[in-house]
Every structure is written in C-alpha cells, then in structure tokens.
Amino acid sequence: MPSLVIDQLTHVYPNGVKALNGISLTIPNGLYGLLGPNGAGKSTLMRDIATLQAPTSGSICFDDIDVVADPQKLRRTLGYLPQDFGVYPRVSAYDMLEHMAVLKGLADGKARRETVERLLNQTNLWNVRKKALASFSGGMRQRFGIAQALIGDPSLIIVDEPTAGLDPEERLRFLNLLAEIGENVVVILSTHIVEDVSDLCPRMAIIAEGRIVREGEPAALIAGLKGRIWTKALSRDELTACRAAHQVISTRLFAGKTVVNVLSDTDPGEGFTQAAGGLEDVYFSSLSPARQAA
Amino acid sequence: MFGKIAWFEFRYQTRQVVFWVAVVIFALLAFGSVASDNVRIGATDNVHKNAPFVIGATTLIFAELYMFVVAALVANVIVRDEETGFGGIIRSTRISKADYLYGRFLGAFGAALVGFLAVPFGLWLGASAWWIDHETLGPFVLFHYAWAYLVLGAPVVFLTAALFFTVTTVTRSMMWTYVGVVVLFVAGQVMGVVLSRPGYEHIAALWEPFGAGAYGAAVRYWTPSERNTQVPAIAGDFLAHLLIWLSVAFGLLAAAYALFRFQASGSGRRSRRRAVALAESTDAAPPQAAPSSPRARPVFDARTARAQLWARTKLDAAQVFKSPAYFVLLGLAAAASVGNLWFSTEVGSYGGKIYPVTRVMVQALSGVFPFMTLIIATYYAGELVWREKERRTHEIIDATPAPDWTFVLPKTLAISIVTISTLLAGVVVSIVTQALRGYFDFQIGDYLVWWVIPTGIDLMLIAALAIFVQALVPHKFVGWAVMVVYLISTIVLSNIGFEDNLYQYGGGPATPVSDMNGLGHYWIGSYWFRLYWSGFALILLVLTYALWRRGTESRLRPRLRQLPRRLTGAAGAVLGLGIAVFVATGAWAFYNTHVLNPYRTSLGDDKWAADYERQFLRYESLPQPKIAKVKLDVQIWPHQTRVVARGVYLIQNRTAQPISQLHVRFVRDLEVNALAIPGARLVKDFGPYNYRIYALDRPMQPGEVLPMAFITTMQQQGFRNSGAMLRIMDNGAFVNEEDLRPHLGMDRSFLLQDRAKRRKYGLPEELRMPKLGAPGADQFNYIGHDADWVTADITVTTDADQIPVAPGYQVSQSVANGRRTVRFVTDSPILDFFSAQSARYAVSTVPYKGVNISVYYTPQHPWNVGRIQKAMQAGLDYYQANFSPYQFHQVRVLEFPAPQGSFAESFANTIPWSEGIFFIADNRDPERIDMVTYVGAHELGHQWWAHQLIGADEQGSTVLSETLAQYSAAMVMKHMYGPDMMRKFLKFELDSYLRARGCDVLAEQPLERVENQPYIHYRKGSLVMYRLQDEIGEDAVNRALRHLLHDYAFKGPPYPTSAELVKDLRAEAPADKQQLITDLFERITLYNVKASHGVARRRPDGRWDLTFTVDARKVYADGSGHETPTPMNETLDVGAFDVDPGDPGYNQSKVIAVQRVPIHSGVQTVTMVLSRAPKFAGVDPFAELIDRDAAAAITKVASQ
Questions:
Q1: How many Cβ atoms are within 10 Å of B480's Cβ, its own excluded?
Q2: Can you tell me the distance from the alpha carbon of B1012 to that of B1001, in angstroms, rounded to the nearest whole number?
Q3: CA distances from B815 to A52, B798, B801, B803 (A)
Q4: Nearest CB neighbour to A107, from listed B284, B293, B299
Q5: Which tens digits make up the pLDDT trace of B528-552?
Q6: Chain A residue numbers touching B295 (CB-CB < 8 A)
Q7: In 3-state terms, what secondary structure has residue B1152?
Q8: Helices in B195-346 by DSSP H: which ranges?
Q9: Which residues, 6+ apart, have CB-to-CB distance to B562 below 8 Å?
Q10: Which candidate, B305, B287, B301, B527, places its Cα nearest to that of B402?
Q11: Of A127, B587, B654, B917, which has the fewest CB atoms closer than 10 Å, so is most exposed?
Q12: Residue A205, pLDDT score
C-alpha cells in the first residue's frame, strides 16, 4: 500500500515569502482533500510534491522514493493536473494526449493509441478529439487535464484546484471522474471549495498560512464540533458587537439578514440556537484562529 | 472618437513584441551599414558615410525591407477583432465605420512610422561610433536625416501600410497579406534591376513603387561634391512619383472603406467553418474499449527514449513550421534572394549574360539568405526554449518522466531541421530560377556540398549558442539581446583586429568554390574549424542540459549549484567528449594557423604595408639594373599547393652611372631558398618584408651585365586562419611571375591605397603618379621599373594529367615519373610580365592565316570556345590590316578558376580568362551585346597595345594600352555587328562613365592624364575614341596609331606617353577638329543638348520640312565635378527617324536622314527636308557625346 509521507516541509520563495512552514502529513491511498483558502500554500505544496520545485527543507517520500533527491523516479508514477495550464497552439486534443503519452513512457504506438482513445472516452472528449485544444472551454480543458494526468496509470495523482471556474454541471462531471479513479492510488485533491472535499474525500487536511491546521477524516472532524456551533440571524448593526463578544467563524446573508455561526462550548444565549455543524464549519473554525493570529 | 481609437491602436501596437524586435533589428542594420567597414552603401572615399546621398540610399533600402514589419503591424488591426471575437462588441457601440477603420489604420501606421525612426537613429549612431575615421564623415546635418526619413522613407511606409491594411481588411485573411508582402517585395526587386538598365530611368522613376527608381534617376550622375551636400529637388519625375504613389495609397484606403462590411458578423466565413468542423467530428463513433485488453504500462528504455526524442522534435519543429512568422521570415529570405538569383546572370554593365551555373547561384544565395536563416534560428531558439513557460504547458510537461535531454536535444534538432529546410528552400528557389532561365543542369549534389551542408552546420553552431544563452538568461528578450550583442561583436572584433577563428565562435576560413576546381582542398581547413566549434557546441549543449529550467524554478543560481551533480554519468561523458574534440582539434587548428602558417589580420597587413612604405619608399628612385633575360624553371605541385621556381636572370646596368647596391624584393610570403649574384654581399635582410640589400664588391658599370640566380618556394602547408593561397588549386594553378621571383628596386605595388588607412598610419594622403611629362618618368614602363623588353625561356612542370602553359612557343615536352614538363621560348621580345598555368584542360586549336588559335577550357564550359576563336580571327584580321603585323604565330586563351579573380588578362600570346566572366556567357539572345567577342577582341588588342607599345609610368600610361584596346575591340564589334549594336554598347559605356565619376576616390582626370582609373581609360576611352573615329574618320585614327607603333613598338626607354598619341592624332586631324581633340583628351567635357518642338510640314512637292529647336550647352568640369560653361561650336549629327534611336524597335531602316550640321551654344532651330514624315528627330542620335541626358536630345515630331 503506497503512501505519501511529508515531513517538516518548508518552502521559502526567493522574495522571502514563507509559503510552507514545517508541514508534516501522511497521505494514504484514496482521495485525499487538501482544503485551504487562496494563498494558503496549497499550490506550493502540490508543486513541491509534483517535483516542479524543490522545497527549502524537509522531505517528501512516496513509498521508497525520496522525491527531493530523485524527482525523476517519482515522475514515472506521477499524474499531475496543475491549477492552471496552457496548451500549444494549433495542436489537437488527440495529438497532445498522444504526445503526453510518449513523454510518460508509452513508446509502443498501438498500446499508446489505445490508452489515448480510452482516456478520451473516459473524459468524454472523444467527439472533440480533433479540435485544437486552444478552442476548448474551461470544463473541456480540465477534463483534458485529468486525461493526461491519468496516462500510464500513475500511483500518485495530484489535482490542484480542478473545479475552480467550472459551472455546476461541469464540476459534477469532473468530480465523478475523480471518484472513478481506482482506490489503490494516492489522489491529492487540492481545493478551496469545501463541497469538493466533503463529497469525495475519506481523509483531508486543512492548510492555512503554510501550516496544517486540521487533519483527519471529515466525519470525525465534524463530530469534533458537535454541540459547539451556534447560529443566529442578526441585523447588520449588531454584527460588530457580536464579533467582539463571540468567536464568529462565518457569516452569510439569508433573506436580507446576516446569519452568523459562532463557536462556543456553552450556549452563548442572546437568542443563539444550536446548529448541526458541517464540514464548512470545520473549515471556517480552523481558519479563524489563524486569521486572528495574522 | 477617431483620435481616441487611433491613440489606443498606436499604444497597442507599440507594446507589441514584434514592434520592438523590429525597431532593434532595423536600428542595428542601419548602425552596421555605417559603422562596419565591410558594408558600404553608396559611400566611397570621396562620399562621406553620413552624406545625404548615403542616408537617402540606405533609407530607401531599409524602407523596402521594412514592409515586412509594416505588414506585421498593420495587417492585424481589423482581423484580430474577428479572431478574438471582440468585433461584435465593437460593432455594437456607436462607433462609425470610418472612425473604426481609419482610426485603427492611423494608429498602426503611426506605430510603423515611429518604428521606422530606428533607421535614421541607427544611421546617426553608426556615424557616431568611435572607431569611424572622422575623415570619412561630413558634418552632421539633421536636415539630411529628416529629409530622407520624411521624403523617402515615410511614403514607402504609408504605401505599404495602406496596401496591406486594405488587403487584409478586404480578404480578412493574414495569409493573403503574407502573400501580398512577398509578391510586392519580389516585384520591387525585379523592377529595381530590370529598370536599372540605361534607357529605363524615366519609367523606373515613375513606376518603381518604392522610390528607388525616382531617387536613383535624380542622383545617378551626381559628382562626389553633390552627393555629399545635396538632396534632390522635389520636382519633375521625383515629384510625379510621389504624387502617383500617394494617390495609389489613398485610393487603396478608400477601397478598404468601400469593400469592408461593417455589420458582417455571425454570418462570416469563420463561424461557418467552425460549425462544419463540429458536425464533422461528432459523426465519428467513439471506439469501444475492449475491457479485457491489458492496459499499457509505461516503460523506460531506449525505445521510449527514441520515441520521446522523435515526438518532442516533431512537436518543436511543427511549432515553427506552423507559425505564420516562419513563413514571413522564409518569404523575406527568399524574396531578398530572388533579385540576386534572377540577376546573377546579368554580368557587367553592358547587359552581358551568363549561364546560371550552380556556382553563380550559390554565390547569389550567400548574400542575404544565410543572414535571414540566422535570424530565423536565433529567433526560434528563444521561442522554443521559452515556449513551454509562455504557453504555460511547462507544469504538465515538466511533471512527466521524460528526461531533461528530451527537451534540450529536440529543440536543438528542431532548429537544425528548420535551418536546413530553410536552406533547402533557398536551393529550390535557385533551381526554379535556373529553370526559368532555361538552364536545366541541376547539380543538386553541388548545392548540398557547396552550400547547404557547410552553411547549415555554421548556422546550427549559432543555434546551439542561442539555445545555451536562452537556457541561462531570465527572459527570452534578454537572450535575444545577448545574441544580437554576439552578432555585433563578430563584426566589431574583426574590425579591431581580432580575427582568429580560434576565438570567434563558429568562425572558420572561407571555402572558395569553382566549377573547375570544386571545393578543391579548401574545405579541409573550414571543416577542422567546424569540428572544433562543434566540440564547443557539444559542451554548450551538455551545459544547457545540466542547467535546464525544469518546473517552476527559473533562477540561475540554484541551477548552477546543481551543475556538478548533474554532470555525472552520461552527461559527463558527453561533456568529456566535447572537451576532447574541442581541445584536440583546437590544438591541430592552432598548429596549422599559427605555426605552419602565419596568423594574419587585415589590420596587421595594413600596418605591414605602412611600415613597408616608411622603410623602403625612399629607395624608389634609387638607380637599379634592369632584367634583360629571364630563364625560369617552374615546378607546380597542384595537389600540394606548392610551386618551386629556379631562375636565372641576366641583369644589366642601363643607367649612366655605376651601381654599387642591389635592392632585391620578393612578395611577403615567398620562401627564398637561394639567391646568388656574383660579387654581391648581403648587407641587410629585412626578413619580415622579404627585402634585401646587397652591396657589390665592384660597382656595376654602365652597360655591364651580371647573372643572378635564385630558388624560391611558394606554398601553403596545412590550412590558414584566412587568406588561403588561391593561385595554386588542384585543378587550376595560375601563378604570376611576381609571386615567384625577385624584383629589383622598390616600387609601389604593396603599398596602402585607401586614403583613410593612409591617414591612420600617418602616411601622406595619397601617392599620386608622376605628372604627364615629368622628367625621368619615361625611362620606365608602367609594368615594372626593373625591366624593359626581355627574352624569356620558361619551363613548367606539373602533374602528368594536367597541361602546363606559359607565354612562348612550346619547344619540348616530356613526361617522366608522373610529371609533365614543357619548355616555352619566345622569339620576339616580351614585357617582363608572365604567368604559369596548369590544369586539366580540353584544348581546341584552329589554325588561321599562320596563327594557331587555341582555347584551353574546362570541359564543363564548352559554350563559347568557337566564339572566342572567331573573335580572335576577326581581331587578327582588323589589327594586322590597320595597325601592324602580329608578333607571334600563336594565341592561347586559358580558362582559370573564378576564385582567382573575375577578369581576363593578356600576357604575351597568352590570355588567361576567368571562368567567372564570359567563358560561361549565354549568347542565346541575339539582342544582347556579344561580350565574348568584345572581351576577346580587347584582350587580343593588348598584344598590340601593351605587348608592342607600352606607356611610360606616368599619368596617361593606360591610355596607350587600355583605351586603345577598347578602341580596337569597338572597331571589331562595329564591323561585325554594325553601328546599331555600337550605339547600345556606347550607351553602356556612357552610363558607366557618368555613374563612376561620382564615386572616384581620386580627382577625375582628363583622359590624357588618367591615373589608372578604369572608368576613364576604359569607359570614357571608348566614347572618346569612337567619337573621334566618327569625326575624323577611322582611317585617320588608324594612320595615327600606325605611326605611333612605327615610332615606339618594342622600343624604350624613353617610353611613349599619351601626349605622343595626342600628337599623332592631331597630325591626322583637320584644323577644325583640333579643338575637339583638346576637349576629348585634355579636358573633362560634358554636353547638354536638348531637342524640342519638332514639327514636320508637308511641302507641295510631297516631301516634308522638319524643324525642331535645339538648346545646346557645353561645360568643362574640374576634378571634383565643378562645372564651367564654355562656348560650344561643333558639327554634330542631326537626324530624323521613324523610331526613337533609344527604343528597342530601332534599326537602320528607321533612319530617314542623318546629316551633320553646326550646333552652337544656346537655342537654335534646325531644319531638314525629308522624303517622308518623321516621328522623331534630334541631335547626336548615336550617343557619342558625353551628355547626362542623352534621351532629351531626341524629340517627338508632330506632323501637320
């Protein structure tokens, strides 16, 4: 059973930004959600794992592969869908996928074409295979991205913010695709959308300010909040006072009123009612201490 | 609104990459055209590098090239809205069609115009470069730059902008614009050359679109002082040209408005195409995956490596080949070469034509094409190295397990493939040109070996450097900038004396190409250097691999830290191989270019010549003996590049005083193995100058004769850094006597000529000839001071499969040990001036009236052998009948390889003739001047005019040889083809003379005082002699020449001068032609004769009265072109014609009447009575006067 072990990973960019600050994680088989706001260090972590950059210190091991020392070895078993990627002009989806297949070590022409065609089918791109990638819509492009990541049946798959910018239907289709991927591989899904994780991932971590702030199974994490989430609808004027008095983890608008969720071990009174906590509350409650610290 | 659109567009265009790349390229080109000594556009020693003429000519050339930039800027202004789909948004605003179209156009045109400022800026910067000799510059005049930019450059930019804008806006296709660019460029080139022939100036001035014709016509006969200070008046044809083409441009813009459909969106061709594509692809059924089939697993072995290499190379190459920019650059390369290729068969100024043999094509290709290919290679090195990053594919590509070398190597290979394909495209263009020229001997192998392979390797070396640079730098523009600096450095380094190919990246000696000799052994040195630099390129490639940016890390420092680790294993082995090749071949190249051969630079050579002058010029007038008899044994080893000469002279003191010192001089690199003069003692050996001074134990008394024996070796061992020995080739040795043997006393043959260089080394600005009649000058002929007429006995030995030739009759021949030895002896005295040749010749001999006429030629070039022999026969007949008997009973014409020179030369009964000129003449068009006969008759004429009569070494010396040989050839041509063909010939002579006047580096001299100035002794000489024989009669001229020969043939000293010729001519000329002789020989005389108002009236008797007005003017010019009017009073031909004598349909039958009438200065009316109504009438119909506007001397006639 392969697993990815990250130990004390720190990444400092040349401009002094400390994007990762001593991260340690063990990621088992299956879909693993990495949740965090923009700028939390998700992409840095993804790129470090995907061998696109070397961390400043710390180690990444996948099975017996030391990723930092021997990136080439990891690449042989890696599928990577970056957060944002471009395409060559005047190249069709089929040709590009075949090209990627060669780069991933599928030298035999027949086997390679079979793989390419299977993946085009699987990602529902068969009908547009001859079209230039440059003319693809966002969803089509993301499906192409996952198709290329799946070439050669990698045992470590990294998908970085795959659902950003997709419409609900496209997003659903994409998540289904991810869910299909075998359970015998490590799949890291990085996202800032809570639903992506709650829908799919048996395990997850929340990253903020370059640190892991929560780690575990989503259900357990939600259970940890049981009875500690209180909610109330406020008018806009009351919000400031409420923030001062309580640990507000999220606010949202509902029917012209502001609904606040606060974290509290006891009933805060003042008309707060107990709410059933969701993963979203886990996420926001994990972030708020970090935000207050910053 | 309009202004805002224009301003937005302007800002958009000036932020484009292509804009700045273009600005930099054009600024550099302009800079280089001034700052480099190797490029001269219009400048001469007398015309400043920043003269208004130079600025104008350069601006025009760049304006024409700039159309490629204009196309890139202007063409997309409308089309990009279609492509981005932004058009709909724009059209839904309240913007009007005119605002939209013309606002956009104005903005883009403005950007193009601003970009073109790079040219005047570059020209100015070039003239400010610190290494430029300030004497070659005039004062800085802003007006000249502004004038050229506004009057010459801006209209071209406007015209091309309007054209390309209209084409793309109407067709909505960039492709058609690219096609249009290429078509226009080619058309411009072709028109430029077609219309540059004399007689087409007016048409060219009006209809050549870029203004080169108009400008050229306006300044064509300008003298240096005019070129330095003036710009042409915006009037006449020049103004007409501007108005015509500005109207065309505005017309095009109007057409764009009329034809552009503003509302057209949605129903356009584009969206239809898209719909079709989707429909097409959906009908294909997805394949049914067989669930049982095993899934492909990645394998990482050699097969995968090959597949990856191939896939990456294919992708990288396709990215270049599919990009529109590639086609623009390729089109530019092809277009710039098409003119060269097409007109490479037009040789000389007489309209002569040669066959487009492969060598000629390759030469024409070598001009612009490699430079453009270099631009392509450098540009795409940047594009390819940075492409993944720019296209943001780098994250998915770099996360694949493909090893780093599958990025570096394919990019290198892709650029190599692009380079080679581009060069092959050049070959295709050449072959098409050959076919269109009716020449079908396509030597594909020669194209490959002579051009594609060596040029390809050289360019790949530069591509490797470019890729390496791009891998290091943080941005591709920085990489390009570094490459531009590198390219400039190659020019600058050579200019400042750093010419060693060991440190000039990619450098190597040139490989001269010849049909006779192929590449000979010259390729060897250049390929050693190619191997040397390939070793270095391999090192660069490994470093590129080791420093490759993978992933998102782009800083250099971390990559440098990893370098040692990455250079282990296979990479280290390849690096080691590269270093080994680099070091080993470098050592070998160093041994060859610095030990076996001296390393020379042009700067060093200049300094040597300057030192030579300072050391030895003082001995110039030191009395020395003269060579009386020469016996020479010449051993030629053609394949070893070696000639050994063993010789014996008899030298005689022909002065009136004893001579106690002998000054013996050899060419710089001749090895002197032995030199023996009885009773002579070496006083000083100036080794580096190969100059020796001997003291005679007993001074040589007047009339005393001494023997002098020597052994010398002329050779090249191995290969040189540059300046390979060209005179000894595997097939085609052509060695001059001066390269082999000693001369006595100092002369000026090795000294610096260029005035700027002379100034630089502190020498007097110019070394002028002795004045006509200078005392003592007539004691020497101009061929050499150390001999008069000699007898020669020359034995030449060469390889047995070659034929050796030297002046003289063959008296013996023997073959032994694979060597052929032939002895040549002359009976009549000859000049001390000869050569030895050897090659595998085919020989054709025809006996003619006691003279054997032989042509020694390479079997590939049989075309003109018979014609040469006919020319010799005609010449022998005319010269023997009119001048004197031929002194030999043989004449031999021998072909020699083109790299040794493009000339024919006349030694005694021996005429070496370059394969590069009319040996390959194409005479299929009978309208063309028969250059073979002309050159042959000229060279045969030298057997009289040089080899019987030789001029004293003073002003006018070459009149007695070159001018009289021109006259002789003209008479042969006149009797063979009639005066009509002569008119054509004289027109070319007139035009060459008038054009060359403007470029003279000395002051122009009257013919009588010519100082070896070719345009005077050849071109003006022909005109003067032809007019003279027309005015005083051919017989009278020939009588004078017979008299001259009678007095001076085979005699001297004292040698005759041009004054003797003038004296003999005056003796034969009637009193009323004496002034004419003064004007022709002793003055620089120019005429300006205009005819107008031609009217013909029918007389009662059925005949016609013709009257026309003549306005005549005559001026004398001084050496720098300043003119003084002088009264004119001459008798000239006037005539009436059916066809203008300058037009193609003209011939003898179109002459109605020609008579001689007096013409004086000012306006006068000429009347003639004619048998039929004329269409044209005028003065000087045969173009014998030196008149800058000969066409104006003929006018149309109105019949009433």
A1: 23
A2: 12
A3: 77, 10, 10, 11
A4: B299
A5: 999 999 999 999 999 999 999 888 8
A6: 115, 153
A7: strand
A8: 201-207, 212-219, 224-229, 236-259, 269-282, 302-321, 324-343
A9: B546
A10: B305
A11: B587
A12: 93
Distance from CA of B396 to the nearest CA of A (A): 6
Minimal-distance CA residue of chain A relative to B304: A107
Tell me how long chain B is.
1200
Which residues touch B374 (CB under 8 Å, ≥6 apart)? Answer: B459, B462, B487
Question: Do B395 and A152 lie within an 8 Å CB cutoff?
Answer: no
Does residue A53 contact residue B551 with C-beta atoms inside 8 Å?
Answer: yes
What is the Cα–Cα distance from A96 to A88, expressed in whole angstroms?
A: 8
Give the DSSP H/E element, type plus range, for residue B891. Answer: strand B890-896
Q: Please state, in angstroms and rounded to a whole number, the distance separating the CA atoms of residues B934 and B838.
A: 26
pLDDT (tens digit per residue) in B98-118:
888 899 899 999 999 999 999
pLDDT at B325: 75
Task: Name the A residues in 77-96 with CB < 8 Å from any B CB.
Answer: 78, 80-82, 84-91
Residues of chain B with C-beta less than 8 angstroms from the C-beta of A80: 395-396, 399
Residues 189-228 of A with CB under 8 A from B: none
- Do residue A104 and residue B298 have CB atoms under 8 angstroms apart? yes
Contact A249/A281 with Cβ under 8 angstroms? Answer: yes
Task: Verify whether the Cβ–Cβ distance A47 to B289 is below 8 Å.
Answer: no
Q: Report the predicted TM-score, pTM, of the whole model to 2 decimal places.
A: 0.84
Q: Does A136 touch chain B (CB under 8 A)?
A: no
Kindly indicate the confidence band of residue B74, based on its pLDDT and cuts at 50, 70 and 90.
confident
- The rounded Cα B588 to chain-centroid distance in angstroms is 34
- Taking CB atoms within 8 Å and a gap of at least 24, the contacts of B1151-1158 are B1151/B1181, B1154/B1181, B1156/B1131, B1156/B1132, B1157/B1131, B1157/B1132, B1158/B1129, B1158/B1130, B1158/B1131, B1158/B1132
Under a CB-based contact definition with an 8 Å cutoff, are residues B671 and B714 in contact?
Answer: yes
**Closest-CA residue to A190 (of A205, A169, A168, A176):** A205
Cβ contacts of A111 on chain B, cutoff 8 Å: 296
Q: Is the ipTM of this complex over 0.85?
A: yes
The whole-angstrom separation of Cα A105 and Cα B301 is: 8
Distance, CA of B808 to CA of B795 (rounded, Å): 10
Q: Nearest 5°: phi and psi at A135?
A: -95, 5
For chain A, give the mean pLDDT. Answer: 87
